[in-house]
Hints:
The protein is an alpha+beta fold.
Amino acid sequence: xxxxxxxxxxxxxxxxxxxxxxxxxxxxxxxxxxxxxxxxxxxxxxxxxxxxxxxxxxxxxxxxxxxxxxxxxxxxxxxxxxxxxxxxxxxxxxxxxxxxxxxxxxxxxxxxxxxxxxxxxxxxxxxxxxxxxxxxxxxxxxxxxxxxxxxxxxxxxxxxxxxxxxxxxxxxxxxxxxxxxxxxxxxxxxxxxxxxxxxxxxxxxxxxxxxxxxxxxxxxxxx
Length: 223
């Protein structure tokens, strides 16, 4: 906890990438937390000496936060605050962001619903069974083997709905990225030229790209 400012204190502004949730406020007691319009977070306030400043920077590193800048501001000069920026103290509640785990899980639900929809609609295509046989022959596999691959991919997507919520941060990121890429390859590798399939496959791919993007940009602050 930082002491009350004295004449020897200096004011510092530390910018971090992304918004901090209110629950992180007690980690930086004594500093004002400002959510800026550009999507980043500003920590500002008096710092006793260099040792305290180094301790603050070490805490930011240990929490896995991304440091953007550190600036010293004279105590006699008010901080330059943009008119439209959103301010909060350590007890205020910022704009609520969707938890990354929830977002990833929800996107996997959308993907699986669309996969099921594509399979159901394909049943109404005349000669669907013959097309499955041709696909199996082209892939050098039997129909049961082809169906097994489809079943595995379906179960993998269902598993991701749960795993996205329960896996720890590091593993969660990479599992979503890898399975997302594999699923995109599976969707377009077995693509049919029917309009409904292309449309649904495009929606699935968009969701999977969002999964990969969000997992790639997921920061440990939410973990």
